[in-house]
Amino acid sequence: METARIYAGFFNDTVDLHEFVRTGGDTRITVISREGIVLADSNPHNELTIDNYLGRPEIIAAASSSPAVHVRYSSTLNANLIYYALMVNRVDSYVFIRASMPVARIDAYLHQSLPLFLLILFVLALICFISVRSMTNRILKPFNYIEQKLRRL
């Protein structure tokens, strides 16, 4: 997810973690220590958990240098979320920057974009039809000319 990459690019050892994770909208940003402890979360009541996040699939993937998107149910937010995490180096260690957003947000975006997508698809199909018809007429023009000459003979 691009959001996690952007946050990872801005992360450094001097940032105030609580300011760093502030986001707008439905995107949730979590900073997790290499020990799996939540250092900061844009969902404040999640910081109070004592869960270890090292076992989460997105953290395992980031730790193995092959970040991947994972979808699962969040009991904290009572919704299916899309998770993506990146490992970011610090001076003496590293942290994980995790971004997550509700699947419903992606679904809503797709439903909202569908009419525009269908319109673009229709216009492209129309352009293709006109282009193919024009090219076919140009290719067949010499043959039609020969046919007319042969009929006159």
Write structural notes for this entry.
This protein is of the alpha+beta class. The protein has a domain at 2-102: Beta-Lactamase (2-Layer Sandwich), CATH 3.30.450.20. Helices cover 46% and strands 23% of the residues. Strands 2-1-5-4-3 form a five-stranded antiparallel β-sheet. Strand 3 and strand 4 form a beta hairpin. It is elongated and about 95 Å long.
Residue share in helix? 40-55%
CATH superfamily of the domain at 2-102: PAS domain
Shape: elongated
Measured on Cα atoms, how large is the radius of gyration? Answer: 27 Å
Topology:
Elements: H1 2-10, H2 17-20, E1 28-33, E2 38-41, H3 57-63, E3 70-74, E4 79-89, E5 94-102, H4 103-152
Antiparallel strand pairs: 1-2, 1-5, 3-4, 4-5
Q: Short summary of the structure?
A:
With 153 residues, the chain is an alpha+beta fold. It has helices spanning 2-10, 17-20, 57-63, 103-152; strands at 28-33, 38-41, 70-74, 79-89, 94-102. A five-stranded antiparallel β-sheet has the order 2-1-5-4-3.
What key phrases describe this protein's structure?
5 strands, alpha+beta, Beta-Lactamase, five-stranded antiparallel beta sheet, 153 residues
